[in-house]
Amino acid sequence: MTQNSPAALLIFVITIAISLYGLYGxxxxxxxxxxxxxxxxxxxxxxxxITSGFVHADLGHLMFNMLSFFFFAFxxxxxxxxxxNFLIVYxxxxxxxxxxxxxxxxxxxxxxxxxxxxxxxxxxxSSILFAPLSKVYIMFIPFGMPAFVFGILYLLYCQFGxxxxxxxxxxxxxxxxxxxxxxxxxxxxxxxxGHFLRFFY
Length: 201
Fold this sequence. Notes:
Elements: H1 6-24, H2 28-33, H3 37-42, H4 48-51, H5 59-104, H6 117-130, E1 135-136, E2 145-146, H7 147-164, H8 171-188, H9 192-197
């Protein structure tokens, strides 16, 4: 699989390496790379929208994101998007996912976030467009559900989390990353709309 997914493999390795270095080597790198909307606005540190996707808060955060990446990213690049379009969807979703957070918290010095969740959400929803009836398995649930059903529940959960959750997860980034993945994929591959609909009639 990795032979046909060089872009996904490169992102996978680099993200793990930088995250582990930040967690167990030089912690200052996390502070330099995490998303700090105040610095984005007042210091023009726009690069942090990208760099924040390569660092994680702790080992559990890294493992969860990289497992999600592993299960969706490699097959999406190899079977559906190809390397160039995969990179466009991944980094496009990463950027778009963070823009609402930057806008909302641009004057909040104490706010920061990090992780690849927005980009991974984009890839996940891109894969759903290509294979809406594929099975998605969630921990502690003994059966798989169709990918499009999971996608609907995922978006509803993100909306609920954005409004009501106090768990310090940037649910907004998940939501906007997912929508970005859908929109960018359709722009790159317009025929995917017909492909998606054919699964239902």
